[in-house]
Structures are given as C-alpha cells and as structure tokens.
Amino acid sequence: MGSLPTESFSVEDEHTDNEKSKSRMARTQWLLNSPNPPSLFHELLSSIKETLSPPSKLCRSRSAVSVLQGLFPILSWAGNYKASKFKDDLMAGLTLASLSIPQSIGYASLAKLDPQYGLYTSVVPPMIYALMGSSREIAIGPVAVVSMLLSSMIQKLEDPITNPIAYRKLVFTVTFFAGAFQAVFGLFRLGFLVDFFSHAAIVGFMGGAAIVIGLQQLKGLLGIAHFTTKTDIISVLEAVFGSFHQPWFPLNFILGCSFFIFILIARFIGRRNKKLFWLPAIAPLISVILSTLIVYFTKADKHGVQIVKHFKGGLNPISAHQLQLRSPHVGQAAKIGLICAIVALTEAIAVGRSFASIKGYHIDGNKEMVAMGFMNIAGSLTSCYLATGSFSRTAVNFSAGCQTVVSNIVMAITVLISLELLTRLLYFTPIAILASIILSALPGLININEAYNIWKVDKLDFLACIGAFFGVLFASVEIGLLTAVTISFAKIILNSIRPGTEVLGRLPETDIFCDIKQYPAAIRTPGILIIRFNTGLLCFANANFIRERIMRWVIEEDRTEEISSGKIHIVVLDMSNVMNIDTSGILALEELHKELVARGIELAVANPRWQVIDKLKVAKFVDKIGKGRIFLTVSEAVDMWFESKMGFEAPIPVRVFREREKWLATDNLLLCNDCDWDAHSSCFVSASHDRNPIEGLSASPSPLELASVWGVVSASSFNIEAAAAATLGRFSSSSDEPSLKIVGFWV
C-alpha cells in the first residue's frame, strides 16, 4: 500500500479546517444572537393561561370555550358520556357512599366537630371537584390526618368543648384560607411549594400521625369521659393511665373491638377474593347500622355506652357569615390554613397520580390545585371543613369500577339523602364504633416497606422521614411538620451551597464528554481542564465555592504536573446544567477569569443556557473573555483550542489496548515533533524494540496502512500520518527496526 503525497493532505486539510472553523463560528453566533428570554411578568401570565387551557388543545387561540373547558374539564367529555359508563359510576358511587358515611362521621369527631359536619364535607366539595377536577377515580371528603391536623392546631386558639361555636367558626375560616392558598398555588403554577414537603417526610408524617390518631381513639374505645387535648404520645398515654380511677364501662370496649374485628375480617376476605371488593367498603356501614340497632333496642346508652347524640340533619347550611376575617385570630387562621393546604394537596395529588398512572393517563397538578382550592372555598361557605382526596375511599372507588368523577356526584347525593332521612337513627350510634372505623383505616397510613426503601436509597431522606415521625409522635403535629420541612430545606441548601463538580473526559470513539469518575473509560484531554457543576442556579450561595474548587484543581495540576494530564492551558466550563445565574455568580466568573489569566490559562464557556447567556452578555462578561471563547458544545471548545494552538483538530481517542500498560513501564516512548508533550500523553504512535512483527503490516508500512490496520479514529487522517512519520523518522538511524503500534491520542 503506497503512501500518498504529503502536499495533497496539507491542502485538503487546510480547506477542511477552514470550513469547520467557519461552521463553528456560525454556531457560536447562534448562541450569542439568541433573542431575549421572556420577562418574569410574561412567564407568570403564560403560566395562568396554561393552567386554564385544556391540555389536548393544540391551537394557540384562547377562546372562551377552551378556557371554560380548562377550568371545568367535565365540559370536554360530558357530551360523550354514555349510559354504560353511568351504570358503572352509579354502582361505584353507592359503594363509595357506604364507606364515606361512617368514615365522615368518625373524622368529624376527630376534628372536634359534630357528626353532621363530616357528612356536609362529603356533599359540597365532591360536587365542586366533579366539575373542576381531572382525576376520574379520586374520592373527595374528610380524611383522618387533615382532621387531626385541624383540631390539634385550632384548639390552641379556641376550646372546642367550652366554646364550640367560636371553634367551629375558626374551622370554617381556616378552610377558607386553605382553599384560597390552594387556588393561588394552582393559578400561578406554584406547585413546587408543595414539593418542599418531600415524599420521605410524608411517609414519616403519615406514620406518626396514624399512631397518634390510633391512641386518641382509646378515648372512645374505652369510654373515657375526660381526655387530653394534646396529641403527643406521652400526654395521650398519661391520659389513658390517669383515667383508670374513673368509672369504666366495658360495654364500650366490647362493642368497639367486636366490630373492629368484623371490619378487619371483611377486609381480609375482600383482598383474598377480588369479586367481593364491596365487602370491605360496606363493612363500616353495616357496623354502624348493627351497633346502632343494638344500642337502641337494648338501651345500652343507659348502661354506660357513649353515643353520638348531637346530630342535626338537613341540607348544608350557609356559613359565609361565620367566617372570622376580622377576628384577632385571622393571622393564625391564615398560617394554619397554609399548613393544612399543603398537607391536603400533597395527599390528594399523590393519590390522584397513583391511580391515574394505573389507568394510563396524566393529571395536571396545577389544575388539581385550582379544583381543590375552589371546592374548599365553596365548602367553607356551606358548613364544610377541609376536604381532600382519601386513599382508602379512592381505592374502593377504583375497585368498584368507576369510569368518571360522576361517582363522586352519586356519592354526594347519597350522603345528602342520608342527611335528610337517617340522622335521627344515627343519634344512637356508639362512639366506640366510630373509633373502631377510624382504627381500621389507619394501617394504610403506616408504610414500613417504603420507609425501608427510603433508608436504602437516601440516608438524608430517611432522616427527614424519621424526623417527621418522631416529631409528630413525641412533640406535636406542627413540630413534626416543621422538623420534616427543616431537614428537607437543609438538604436543599446543602446541595445548593456545595454542588457537585465534575472533571470531564472524552469517551473513546465518541464526541461525548462525561465525568471521569463515573466513567473510568473517559480520557482527559491534555492541557485542557473541563469542569461541569451540577447546580441549576449559579448564585451567591455557591458561586465562590465553585470558583475556589476550580482554582484548587488548577493549582493541584500545576504542582503535580502528572504525566496523565500535563500543564493546563485552558479551562472549559460546561454550563449545560446551569439554568440561571445571578450577579454574584457573574462576579465569581469574572474573578475566576482574572485568576486564570494571571496563571497564563484561558477560560472558555460551553453550552450556556438561555437565561445564562443573556445575563452574561448584559454584564459584558462575554466581551471580557472574548466571543471566540463561547461555544455551543464542549467538543467544539476543545477542537477550536487545538486548531488555534496546535494547528490541527483534537483527535478522538480510541480504545485503550492492554499492551499500553507494558509500554508505559519502559523507556521506549518517544517525543513527537509536532508537540511539546510526552508521546504517551499526546502522540498517535508508540514504538517498541520487541522486534515482534505486527500482523497485517508490510515490511515498510505507510502511515495510512498503519492507521487502517489498527483502526485509529481521528478527525483528520493527515495528522495521524504526520505523527506516525515523525516517530518513524526518529528510528531511521537506529540499528534495530522497531515495530509500531498506533494507539490513538494517549492521555
């Protein structure tokens, strides 16, 4: 195989390099000449429009119909609603009502309200959600955790026993504020605020709350007349043991435990036989009916069995006039409303998304917030307290075969009918039965397996989990929430002020640059330090840390001058992860540039995002480092620097052969005439005096033949030939004929 004339390669290579250089400069201009990013006001306005517009609408027009369909999703499918779907929704709604009625009564007692307020909450909010919500399976109504959260915080302001009217008014006010916060979160796409209450914190909080709720049910289960208003486990146990000297009526305990066992057996049968899914759902209602009849006919209330007594039926009364928007407690009510809004949203969205994923569709979290907000605002005006999505009732609704949110409407109408017709019968319902119903719903709130998974995956997340758990258990609900949020914030702050930084290398035979620690096969490019920092915001909190970290790398490289890297000539910042930057971040980049220039090192920026490049241009940072040092990709930055300094494009490294380790241990590595680095760190050819012929090569191989046999990959074949020829020339005066091996661009 004959060698080609060197001149032809020189002309062709020069022409190719000029074309590539012009192409890279054009791509840099795309980056520098990008339009200004949208303003903050424009982004907020767009967020509201996106929230109100239907997700399936492809056109850009925002007609009144599309806005209405976005606000009321039921309008987009009501026209295609069929009788077959209504049949499924009717059965699901009736099954759901059989569970909602007893649970709503029990959760009202947990919220320190009369029983009818739990039923009121299962009427208006589900109907409003059916009009505005997008989840097909979620069941709306009161839930245990939110009920306890409300009572534990509001009773510090008003006593529900000595002043029940003022307490109830404050509950409606808190519900109004919670709904307002939820609606604002959705309209302005502030759903990320809910994410501060992390999944791990939710698991811990729910588990702790379930245990506290369960212990509080000992009051009803044992028939204790006087009980503590505190929620921590120590106070509750003290109240239980302190009540032993009081008169004790075992009938409460016998009734409660009997029906508690009945509910658990029904649930076990329902899980074993999927066709009997309705049995666990109807078991609580059967318990209420049977226990009420037992008390009524045996006059057990005359023998110490505590009953509900206070039960007012009828339609939801208007409560708008009861909102305390000018009371001294309005500030505290708003704070409690914010906390409850976040907890309720977190539970509802998690439930909705879980079942939506099973059915293969997606719900918009921001639209769900709007729906939840308006339903709770409407609820606060109609004698309802805070409602949200219930996991246990949603599971029943799903198992019953619901097709749409019409099942919520059926459930609400059924509860409304029971308010009109059955309230007198419920007068004799034993409180112990309500306690057993609440207890039966608590195991689903304690997720030990998920807590174990959190421990295995992320220890800091587990710290937030147990912080919330023990905070709720041994202090209070508020302390548990505060502990969880504090740990979550600390994790965010720690990751923000100490973001991960990576040194990048090139994967063999590719243009991909990645972390050399994660990918050991990645090869450092000699003379170039490529840094990527893993933070979305380069700001006052982390800018100096990143600058100091980069300078430490530079100083360490200069001091050690390791064979594998050599002296640094340029630092390339891969800013693909940085979504935004503030003035402190820009100032840190300017200081970094000055320090590097003082050491004779250049600075380049690769792949800055839209907001970042816009601010760098406005701050004149681009002018300071030069427009020729802004690149679209890291690969272009590396290639451009090689062309400007070395006269040829950076080669793409080939795979490392095992023989390389043997050769690096000898003194047979040569210097290349084309550069000032050692051959094993920058040359294309290494040589050995082992006299072993290389299979596939002729006696006098040409550089191109060497390249073809060993499969060397490079952006320019001429440069491979030049390096090979230079090495061959070094051996021309040697008495020993060397065997050559092209190994690519060694680093």
Automatic annotation (TrEMBL):
Pfam family membership, one: STAS
Biological source species: Camellia sinensis var. sinensis
Protein name as it appears in the record: STAS domain-containing protein
Cited Gene3D superfamilies: STAS domain
Iron in keyword set: no
Keywords, comma-separated and alphabetical: Membrane, Transmembrane, Transmembrane helix, Transport
Coiled coil: none
Signal peptide: none
Gene Ontology biological-process annotations: transmembrane transport
